[in-house]
């Protein structure tokens, strides 16, 4: 089957895409509007990590997770884009999920308390709860003497 053609229009570094020129121009206008009304960067400290969320020049959310305890200027663990079809609250929630996954250890006894401290939105809370359940299952299988491959398969449900 043929791949549908995508029309691309550009103004400066902002690119709009769509199936027709009208849709591509609408996408471009939406991204320019996003940039004109974008909030300033959001910076917070959570789980001992510095989380930075901001809108980039391509009308997409980007983020960095920095561990200030590393070396002189901190170590950047994650630096990536989140896409443009999000609100700032949704972007912050996703970055909080990534930070929580970075900080979680099997020794943490109160998973629900940990999830509450992450302060994610409900979708990311579900993802974090599922991820922790998988991590606990995997760790238990490793303790039971399974190989990493066997533990991964069984924890995943294959």
Concise account of the structure shown:
46% of the residues lie in helices and 24% in strands.
Attribute tags:
6 strands, four-stranded antiparallel beta sheet, alpha+beta, 5 helices, 46% helix, 158 residues, 3 domains, two-stranded antiparallel ribbon, 24% strand
Large-scale geometry: globular
Please tell me how large the radius of gyration is. 20 Å
Low-confidence stretches: none
Which structural category do the helix and sheet elements fall into? alpha+beta
Content of β-strand: 15-25%
Q: Report the mean per-residue pLDDT as an integer.
A: 86
Q: Which range best describes the helical content: under 10%, 10-25%, 25-40%, 40-55%, 55-70% or over 70%?
A: 40-55%
As for the number of domains, it is: 3
Description:
It is a single chain. The mean pLDDT is 86. With 158 residues, the protein is an alpha+beta fold. The two termini are 32 Å apart. It folds into 3 domains: 7-37, no CATH class; 39-86; 104-158. The longest helix has 22 residues, at 122-143. The strands form 2 sheets. The chain has a 4-stranded antiparallel β-sheet, covered by helices on one side. The chain is built from 5 helices and 6 strands.
List the helices and strands and how they pair.
Elements: E1 7-11, E2 14-18, H1 21-37, E3 42-46, E4 49-55, E5 61-67, E6 75-83, H2 88-103, H3 111-118, H4 122-143, H5 148-156
